[in-house]
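[recover] target loaded
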């Protein structure tokens, strides 16, 4: 696969954002003609979601269930493909922590592969832009494997190559909390993180950029500190993507991108997909933030960070209640 080919695939996300603006007039009313125009755009393009998470208790993609992602929903929404993330939350950097992270990554990997393998008439795994075009041309959903948070890799650079061999094509260094590769834009209070640990990328993280370029894996710069992002851009020989970021000029969140960062990604030839999470894309009234804070206290969250011992069922319960609260936020 060419070094920057997946950025071409992800450019569909920009068109997807454009169709949303077409379909949502300022008055908030649904204009049938504009909606039909948006649907026509969707029929022509490969609408691609560059970052999608599955919960550990994901029930499968075949049924139209309670989760936000399944194959009946993507058919209705005319979504043609997505990068499904082998995502494991940041934990303690101990032998036990790394072992659990590896086990959790394996579980996520199997859940993602099952989306295609259990529904061969509706979906297929894609390992290149050509695969995405071929699969979507057949009327199937293209599943691209990504990895978010290098924590499960330990300090082993060779793990990048191993995950590539297993099909991963997009690689994000961090989530909420610093790791052995890079600094996160959201240091973990629970893990005792300082504001910065490496001053950007660690030596391992810098080596990782070269290896990712060599393999042709797309580097995801979402969730990085400004220093980390700038160092990635100074080292990479290929365009990058921010697969799930907001705009700091609209909402002042540490994980959102500043105007300077957006300009640097543009100069790199990269792309940005705006995250579909309300409190990162529109200001939240104080009465809503007070409700969210009370909910976080009830479940033991520190900011958006869950306690390490919170069960998956409780995390889902928290997410559902949080979503209901945020649904009351006025449209931007």
């Amino acid at each position: 696969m060419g070094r920057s080919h997946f950025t071409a695939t992800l450019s569909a996300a920009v068109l997807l954002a454009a169709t949303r603006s077409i379909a949502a007039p300022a008055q908030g009313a649904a204009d049938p003609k504009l909606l039909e125009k948006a649907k026509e755009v969707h029929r022509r393009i490969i609408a691609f979601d560059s970052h999608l998470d599955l919960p550990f208790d994901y029930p499968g993609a075949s049924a139209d269930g309670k989760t936000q992602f399944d194959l009946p929903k993507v058919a209705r929404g005319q979504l043609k493909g997505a990068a499904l993330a082998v995502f494991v939350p940041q934990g303690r950097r101990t032998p036990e922590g790394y072992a659990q992270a590896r086990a959790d990554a394996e579980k996520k990997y199997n859940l993602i592969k099952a989306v295609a393998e259990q529904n061969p008439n509706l979906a297929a795994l894609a390992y290149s832009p050509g695969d995405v075009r071929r699969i979507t041309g057949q009327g199937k959903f293209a599943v691209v494997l990504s990895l978010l948070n290098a924590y499960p890799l330990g300090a082993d650079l060779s793990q990048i190559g191993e995950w590539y061999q297993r099909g991963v094509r997009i690689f994000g260094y961090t989530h909420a909390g610093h790791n052995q590769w890079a600094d996160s834009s959201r240091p973990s209070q629970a893990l005792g993180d300082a504001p910065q640990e490496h001053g950007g990328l660690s030596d391992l993280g810098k080596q990782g950029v070269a290896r990712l370029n060599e393999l042709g894996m797309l580097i995801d710069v979402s969730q990085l500190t400004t220093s980390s992002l700038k160092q990635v851009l100074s080292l990479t020989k290929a365009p990058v993507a921010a697969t799930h970021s907001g705009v700091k000029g609209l909402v002042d969140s540490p994980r959102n991108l500043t105007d300077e960062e957006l300009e640097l990604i543009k100069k790199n030839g990269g792309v940005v997909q705006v995250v579909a999470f309300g409190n990162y894309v529109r200001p939240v009234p104080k009465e809503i933030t007070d409700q969210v804070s009370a909910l976080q206290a009830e479940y033991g969250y520190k900011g958006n960070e869950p306690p390490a011992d919170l069960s998956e069922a409780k995390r889902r319960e928290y997410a559902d209640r949080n979503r209901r609260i945020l649904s009351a936020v006025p449209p931007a």
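[recover] notes: Residues 285-332 form one domain.
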